[in-house]
Amino acid sequence: MAQISDNMRGAALMTGAMVTFTINDAFTKALGDALPLSQLLCLRGLGVTICLIIMARVLGQLQFNLPRRDWIIMLLRTAGEIGGAYFFISALFHMPIANVSAIMQVLPLSVSLAGALFMGEALGWRRLLAILVGFGGVMLIVRPGGADFNIFSLYALGAVACVTLRDLIVRKLSRSVPSLMVSLVAAIGITAFAGFVSIWDDWQPLSGREAFNLAGATVFVIFGYIFSVAAMRVGEIGFVAPFRYASLLTAIILGVVAFGEFPNTLTLIGAGIVVATGVFTLLREQRISLKRRVVPDRIR
What we know:
With 300 residues, the chain is mainly alpha-helical. The protein has twelve helices and no strands.
């Protein structure tokens, strides 16, 4: 019963993380062209950084005496985070929120493929086939050469590539490095990068509506960090991870309600294919992990 309770708690936290991250996306998208991207990232990053410093301090995770190797890995991960934020938000400003979210759901597939190509991780033919089918679903959403295709569709794919790098490189991080410290370094990196780029941009005054949207984005992205860190520490990853697809349902609902964006049939079909192949990949990984644990027990 304790294990079931942990799994359900982890599933609830992952769902909360995905919903709050997507609500943050909606607040960010609502800012539209009102603010330069660098100003938006800088102001939001400042709020996130301050809150993460307080959280890390309270929880005793504010640690700077880390090995040099871990600092290098965190900086490389932060580079992926910066690229992912730039490409994702740029695409979000110019594409329906459901389309961008659907493309981002290919991450479990892209991470599995990159792990096999660059880190020598095992990848059976079933999961390879699922990855190929999943990327086919992405092509239905992007539709190269179609009337709705534009450069920002490629930006969304660029975000996938950057976040894949981010998620792959973190696997090399020592287990002793606190999760909040990793998130804090990323937040500082994004804020510093955006602040530097903003030197060449004209900062715009905030109206009451824009300040509200910016505050909403900051608050919900912080909750997203809190829930996502907690989710990965509770329950089995194979059980918890599929609940990340709650972000796609949330994005579709917010797109319709907040922005009047109705996904077309091909987008919904493509999103369904991506989610189905992603869930298959996660379940397959869980099954393989169980076999690896059972075999040594039998040997003993």
